[in-house]
Amino acid sequence: MKASWVLRLVVVTALVGVGGGLSGLVVTVALRAIQHLAYSYDTGTFLDAVSASAPGQRVLALLVAGIIGGAGWWGLRRWAKPVVSVERSVHGERMPPLATVVNVGLQIIIVGLGASIGREVAPRELGALFAGWLSEKARVTARERRILVACGAGAGLAAVYNVPLSGALFAIEVLLAELSFATALPALATSAIATIVARAVVPDVPLYNLPQFELSPSIFVWAVLAGPLLGTGALGFVRLVGFASKIRPKSWWILVLMPVVFTGVGVLSIPFPSILGNGKSLGEVAFAGTASIGLLAALALVKVLTTTGTIAVGAAGGTLTPALAVGAAFGGALGGLWSLLWPGTPLAAFVFVAAAAFLASSLRAPFTALVLVVEFTNQGPGLLVPTMIAIAGSVAVAYLFGRRRVAGIP
């Protein structure tokens, strides 16, 4: 009896990994197809295509995204079963298949057309949906289902970005908040399997190409000072996102507001093309290390504005990659100012440290944030110490502010 139970769990876990990989694969293929169609390109990056497109083409693409998104989410929220988030599914709620798939499809469409919001929720929702369905069919226990759903979501994240360790850590640290053999083994296995499956379309290369950096006294001191600033900025970003979520339109107003705001995002993309999409383009600009201090600061602010505006008008999507991009641009600006006082450190090194520290606080997951930025850049141990210092300072600020709010201190 025990042997059959173990075998069943092994098979179900492996299938959850396959499901997560297929989720990432489907999202990647669909997103690329929409991007290539909307911006008329065959090769190169999304940022290259957007930058080369006519201003009117960008505005039109965002207008279409707003019309499709507004009509789609209005109809979904009016007639379909309420969408259940991954977090709620981990705690036992069942994700309605049709509503979840439609919600995922709308996210892919608007991000592909250039909406300023993350794409990572879509593969996580698909992975969690499949894991929940499979758990019911396999008749696992409630605790096993909880772990498998979290692993399915983490596997979807791992697959779509080719970040197997980050996907496993996301399931353990963010969704389960439990590190044990019972959570670590399936999380590692499912994310590894998902990454292998998705490599049929997701290239096995880092998201950002960077040289290997060395530790310097300058960046170490900067990390000590910048960590709390980055944590304060991340806390502000999280609160803005929370406020935007609260004021989402609950009626037909979404049919008007989403096209109007999305068109505004398209207009802002005329001088700032890198704000479009999930944040990868802004990350490319920041990690290139060639942008001016003023431009990086402006891009960070505009990305915050467009992402929170997108959420405020009712769009669903993620904030993981936008937060990383905002942190990268913000850190690049801070690093550029620091280099005026203490030159010698490449700007991209500051960007790396800041992206991890900002994401750590906004995601409330320091280990996931650190590993995610490492996997995104294939960066070695040279910047590990200053990054850990900056993350500690950033998370400490968010924690202290959180304790003040709990205690009712203004």
Automatic annotation (TrEMBL):
It is found in: Membrane. GO terms for cellular component: chloride channel complex. Its main location: membrane. Pfam families: Voltage_CLC. Signal peptide: none annotated. It is a multi-pass membrane protein. Keywords: Chloride, Chloride channel, Ion channel, Ion transport, Membrane, Transmembrane, Transmembrane helix, Transport. InterPro entries: Cl-channel_core, ClC, ClC-type_chloride_channel. The chain crosses the membrane at residues 56-76, 147-172, 219-240, 252-273, 285-306, 318-341, 347-374, 381-401. GO terms for molecular function: chloride channel activity. PANTHER family: CHLORIDE CHANNEL PROTEIN CLC-E. This is Chloride channel protein.
